[in-house]
Design a protein that fits this description.
Chain A is an all-alpha fold and 341 residues long. Chain A has helices at residues 2-6, 14-35, 43-68, 76-91, 98-121, 127-145, 155-162, 170-188, 190-200, 202-207, 213-238, 245-248, 251-261, 273-292, 297-319, 332-340; strands at residues 164-165, 168-169. In chain B, 33% of the residues lie in helices and 24% in strands. Chain B is globular, with a radius of gyration of 25 Å. Classes of the chains: A mainly alpha (341), B alpha/beta (523). At the A-B interface, helix 8, helix 9, helix 10 and helix 16 of A face strand 8, helix 5 and helix 6 of B.
């Protein structure tokens, strides 16, 4: 019975499905926007959508790496806020301080990632708990040391948030560049291959001679650094470092939602960054259309929730783990043997 | 470990006849015990280049332990292993692999979500300019598969999409890719259908032609005689014989493997046991794992299912109980047609099943004895719960469960007592057909005996019992009839009191030539 419903979907990869859903969202968005008397494909509207993708995009790329390794990172929103206030404080409105500010901010983020990675891969604490802990610590530190906005970004740094190349926002291009880097990492480096292996089955990885701590550690560091990039972008947009900007954006749960929507297995070992970016785009299109239609903000969350649950339900139907049947599925080898006879 | 493997070109042609074949591996006096229990005592083994060495013995004879010592998974307590004259010790499987000994274990070590190529080269991905050279990885994989004579497998295919036989091929390819000169295979055909075994034969022929030594563990005697040049028989951890295959025949081999008196004690049928109406009938029933099952189980009967690992014993139980429901054929419970699509439906129609793995699927370990015992009744027959709640203390004391109190968590009970709680939880549903998969696995003799007695009592009360067991003496000692399975089908039925030899011969296909009478259904 379950094989029937899957019928046509079965030939598709998860990424294929996400692509289809994105296409559907764009078509639906075009129609709904047209009903409101507006043009979905106007430069302004496309710019809005692409700009909205950038921040969640950075975080979701990092989250994908961590989830593929079988872990989770809930500290990302706090890392973003922390990076913003640290960098903003060092920049203090002076263009000459941009580089030290950026380096310090990303350095702090990397340090948090290193702690997360160490706790997860060496102390064997699940990423959910480990990053929940570091996230709480950072939020406590932020709340006690930064009442309100801190530091300021010089106008040269703010350009990142507001400049465009043609119709494309620079911030989104940087995010897509990071995504391309992550795709390369996963497909074409040993580290990437080993990350899949550790997330898929740590014991199989170990027996194949892989040092299982390293991929996981690297994934956590990269995830935090990417969250730091998101923090820097927020700093550029707001022009001040805000200690609450990350938690207000709900980037922890939204990034996990985007990763899962993108077809990555929450248990690890399967998925890719392309799907995640499509997931982020789906959220951006949905938000845009609902903003155009002036949908009640609480109802927006309902719609988001429905989409996430529906997506995972579709994947779950496809992913039911079964022993390969012996009597029903003619294997490749059977036909080869037939021929040999 | 600094020794480098000898150049692969050093081989000197095929070693068709065995005598002058060089000895690659020489093990002497291997001994291993676990917590005071000796599982391997003073075993010698010689593996020669280009030859297949068969290792046979019953469950628990020490075959797997011997393999694991050679693979570097376990360290031997005593004894030496020489590889081409140099003594070696391995403390990690990787060291054995680098020395040229690869092992294909019974359980697969593959990542289902990754491709064939990614699995084979895991941890050793070829690189160019610091990046993984995907094209070369795929090319090497294709070469490797071509060498083994396998076509139809693509390097990009994900392992999840492969059949068990194809996964087995990937495992072997992985083992070969380490430039292995010795490959051990632990029951490589356990999960394969007969026609798939042919492919494995071809691969093994290919490997021996290249001078690889193969240690082959199997329960299927036909394969042992088809493939092996030399056969070593283990029994209770000791080496009973090590002879050229020509000097042995199936009967002799089975005698060497079994070679013991019936020591276990099985109770006689309880007085007043009568074989009555059919309780469970299967006609041509099948699904993806078992096929063409015809079986009648009558009230008061205990029927044992024997068969090798992977022959479909557990799968049959799961099909009857609706875990992996039958997709064709007929099934009747108490002469009413039914085909339970879920365990819940099965319980409603009067079935109960004791699963193979009580810790994973039989009990909720961190819940109390009472909650565990009431589980199925509460879930399926809520109206009966109060009555069951009153009866359970009596039931548990009848079973002589040794526990402090009903609210004790079952994880603190011994294996035998846990199994009794499993029994209680299904007896509380008042089943008419009791399916028992390995009912006495891992429990002590005393508890075994009380479970045997309980089976007899159930039969006397008119319950039909269907039991699966890997322990042949148990199947023979308890069953009124013995159904032997092979390759997901019923290979034959034997009367009570048949000898272990007959059961083994039927289960291994030594009694008849398998495959000949079986034409694959083109649909």
């Amino acid at each position: 019975m379950s094989t029937r419903t899957g019928g046509r979907l079965h030939g598709l990869t998860s990424t294929g499905i996400v692509g289809l859903v994105l296409l559907g969202a764009v078509i639906l968005g075009t129609v709904l926007t047209a009903i409101e008397g507006r043009n979905f494909f106007s430069t302004g509207n496309l710019r809005d959508i692409l700009t909205a993708m950038s921040i969640l995009g950075f975080i979701a790329i990092g989250q994908t790496l961590v989830v593929l390794g079988g872990s989770l990172d809930l500290s990302v929103p706090f890392v973003a806020s922390l990076t913003g206030v640290v960098s903003g404080g060092i920049m203090a409105g002076d263009t000459g301080n941009v580089l030290p500010g950026v380096l310090a901010g990303l350095g702090v983020a990397a340090a948090v990632g290193l702690v997360n990675g160490f706790v997860v891969s060496v102390l064997k604490v699940h990423g959910f708990i480990a990053s929940l802990g570091t996230g709480l610590m950072i939020s406590g530190y932020l709340a006690t040391n930064y009442q309100g906005n801190h530091g300021s970004a010089p106008s040269s740094f703010r350009m990142i948030g507001i400049s465009f190349i043609g119709p494309l926002p620079v911030s989104t291009l940087i995010m897509l560049g990071c995504a391309a880097g992550a795709v390369l990492l996963l497909r074409r480096t040993r580290l990437g291959h080993h990350l899949y292996a550790v997330g898929g089955d740590a014991e199989v990885a170990r027996l194949s001679g892989i040092r299982t701590t390293i991929p996981l550690l690297a994934a956590h560091v990269l995830c935090s650094v990417l969250a730091g990039c998101a923090g820097l972008l927020l700093l550029a947009r707001l022009s001040v470092g805000n200690p609450n900007v990350g938690s207000q954006g709900q980037y922890d749960l939204m990034s996990i939602a985007a990763v899962v929507l993108g077809g990555t297995l929450l248990a690890g070992g399967k998925g890719n960054v392309t799907g995640t970016i499509a997931g982020v785009a789906i959220f951006a299109v949905m938000d845009n259309v609902m903003a155009v239609m002036q949908v009640d903000p609480f109802l927006r969350n309902v719609v988001r929730g429905v989409v996430i649950v529906a997506a995972v339900a579709v994947y779950a139907r496809r992913e039911i783990d079964r022993r390969p049947a012996r009597f029903e599925r003619p294997g490749v080898l059977d036909s080869a043997l037939e021929e040999a006879r | 470990m600094t020794r480098s493997p000898a150049a692969p070109d050093a081989r000197t042609g095929p070693f068709a006849s065995g005598d002058e074949a060089p000895v690659l591996l020489r093990a002497r006096g291997l001994t291993k015990s676990f917590v005071g229990h000796t599982v391997l005592a003073d075993v010698d083994l010689d593996l020669c280049a280009g030859q297949v060495h068969g290792l046979v013995g019953e469950n628990g004879a020490g075959k797997s332990t011997l393999m694991k010592i050679l693979a570097g998974v376990h360290a031997a307590d005593a004894g030496t292993v020489e590889l081409e004259g140099d003594e070696v010790t391995f403390s990690h499987p990787l060291q054995a692999q680098h020395a040229g000994i690869s092992t294909v274990f019974q359980e697969f070590n593959l990542l289902p979500e990754r491709s064939v190529a990614q699995n084979i080269w895991l941890g050793r991905e070829p690189r160019r300019h610091g990046l993984v050279d995907v094209a070369r990885m795929h090319r090497d994989t294709r070469d490797l598969l071509d060498q083994l004579g396998v076509d139809g497998l693509r390097p990009q295919q994900s392992v999840r999409s492969l059949s068990v036989a194809e996964q087995q091929v990937v495992e072997i390819a992985k083992a070969v890719s380490y430039d292995a000169r010795i490959i051990s295979m632990d029951e490589p055909t356990a999960a394969l259908a007969d026609h798939e075994v042919q492919l494995l034969y071809r691969i093994i022929e290919e490997l021996t032609g290249r001078g690889v030594a193969i240690l082959y563990v199997s329960h299927r005697l036909k394969e042992i005689f088809d493939l092996c040049d030399t056969i070593t028989v283990l029994k209770d951890g000791r080496q009973v014989a090590s002879r050229p295959a020509e000097e042995l025949d199936a009967g002799e081999l089975v005698r060497l493997m079994v070679g013991r008196e019936m020591t276990a004690f099985f109770p006689d049928p309880a007085p007043g046991t009568e074989v009555g109406e059919p309780r469970l009938e299967l006609r041509g029933a099948g699904n993806g794992y078992v096929d063409g099952i015809d079986l009648t189980l009558r009230a008061g009967e205990i029927v044992g299912i024997a068969g090798l690992q992977g022959s479909g014993r557990t799968e049959l139980m799961e099909a009857i109980f609706g875990v992996q429901p039958f997709t064709r054929g007929e099934m009747r419970v108490d002469q009413r047609a039914t085909r339970p699509g879920s365990p819940r439906a099965a319980v409603r129609s009067g079935l109960a099943m004791i699963t193979e793995d009580r810790k994973a699927t039989g009990l909720a370990l961190n819940q109390s004895i009472l909650d565990n015992a009431l589980g199925p009744v509460r879930a399926v027959f809520p109206f009966r719960t109060p009555r069951a709640r009153r009866e359970i203390p009596g039931l548990l004391s009848n079973l002589a469960v040794a526990a402090r109190a009903l609210d004790q968590e079952v994880q603190f009970l011994s294996g035998g007592n846990q199994q009794k709680v499993v029994l209680a939880r299904w007896l509380a549903t008042e089943p008419r057909v009791m399916l028992m998969d390995e009912p006495t696995r891992g429990i002590d003799v005393g508890a075994k005996h009380s479970i045997y007695e309980l089976m007899r009592v159930l039969a006397a009360e008119g319950v039909a019992v269907l039991m699966v067991s890997s322990e042949l003496p148990e199947v023979i000692g308890m069953s009124d009839r013995i159904v032997v399975m092979r390759d997901g089908r019923i290979a034959g039925e034997l009367p009570a009191g048949s000898s272990e030899e007959t059961v083994l011969q039927l289960a291994t296909g030594a009694l008849e030539r398998p495959g000949d009478e079986r034409i694959e259904d083109p649909a």
